[in-house]
Design goal:
This protein has ten helices and eight strands. With 259 residues, the protein is an alpha/beta fold. The protein has two domains: 125 residues, no CATH class; 126 residues, no CATH class. The chain is elongated, with a radius of gyration of 21 Å.
Length: 259
């Protein structure tokens, strides 16, 4: 068995797909993994590190779009954002089936290779929807709105377009503190992604969160609309999981480590 170890990114995974396919070793004799997926190596396996290559990525994308469908391309892109540790190999197996069946592959949910991709995409869509609902902005500077999130999946690229459409005249940042990156939007311009792995940035953001005057207003609103006789914490956790509350000013940040 030959294992291709890819960078945990869309480009890294598609480069791995290209290298595994072009190796001509047979699909049953190769496997894709994302870097850091397993802490120990398996016996009797050859490990090959995959270096992202833009030309190879473009070839795979072009083949998927022309020989399978645009829907298949969108599905594998979204699946690459999943936290599923086996996503690289799932994408590879999906594409093997896709090149065999063509455009109808995305409707063939009875196939395990297709259902695995569908399940990851559904999980991503659900989390992106909840993040959009529960995301809160605070005012860091006079003209800058900032929000922190900590999603399980890499949904930042899925939720940023929503706020770019709803808040085109505002300067805002949505910071994913787990992946140390942010979506930045300048008023009247398109949004873009940027790595923000900086302790100084983290400290400034946390200080702004603690000092924000709207935090107390959110708490006051929550208290004012609460009906004591209808308090149901179990139902509340169902509709608003604890892991989101660490990033919502109307709740105490002491809930941050709860799941």
């Amino acid at each position: 068995m030959t294992v291709y170890t890819c960078k945990d990114s869309f480009e890294g995974i598609l480069t791995g797909v290209y290298d595994a396919w072009m190796s001509r070793k047979g699909h049953s004799n190769v496997r894709l993994e994302t870097a850091g997926q397993y802490s120990t190596m398996e016996l009797f396996c050859d490990y090959i590190d995959v270096i992202p290559d833009e030309e190879k990525v473009e070839k795979v994308i072009r083949s998927v779009r022309t020989r399978i469908s645009e829907a298949a391309y969108e599905a594998i892109y979204k699946a690459s954002l999943s936290r599923n540790g086996e996503k690289a190999d799932h994408i590879y197996r999906f594409l093997i089936r896709g090149f065999q069946k063509g455009a109808g592959i995305t409707q063939s949910l009875q196939l395990p290779e297709v259902f695995q991709i569908f399940d990851m995409c559904r999980n991503l869509d659900n989390e992106a929807h909840l993040e959009t609902e529960f995301l809160r902005f605070i005012q860091m500077d006079e003209d800058m709105l900032v929000s922190r999130i900590g999603p399980k999946n890499d949904v930042l690229v899925l939720i940023a377009p929503h706020f770019a459409d709803r808040m085109p005249a505002e300067n805002w940042i949505i910071y994913d503190e787990k992946r140390k990156k942010a979506a930045l939007h300048q008023a009247g311009r398109p949004w873009f992604l940027m790595d923000l792995d900086s302790r100084e940035w983290e400290e400034k953001l946390h200080k702004a969160t603690e000092d924000d005057e709207y935090r107390e207003l959110w708490k006051a609103l929550r208290r004012s609309i609460t009906i004591k006789e209808r308090w149901n914490p179990v139902c509340q956790r169902t509709h608003m999981p604890l892991r989101y509350r660490a990033y919502m000013p109307e709740f105490d940040h002491g809930l941050k480590d709860q799941r």
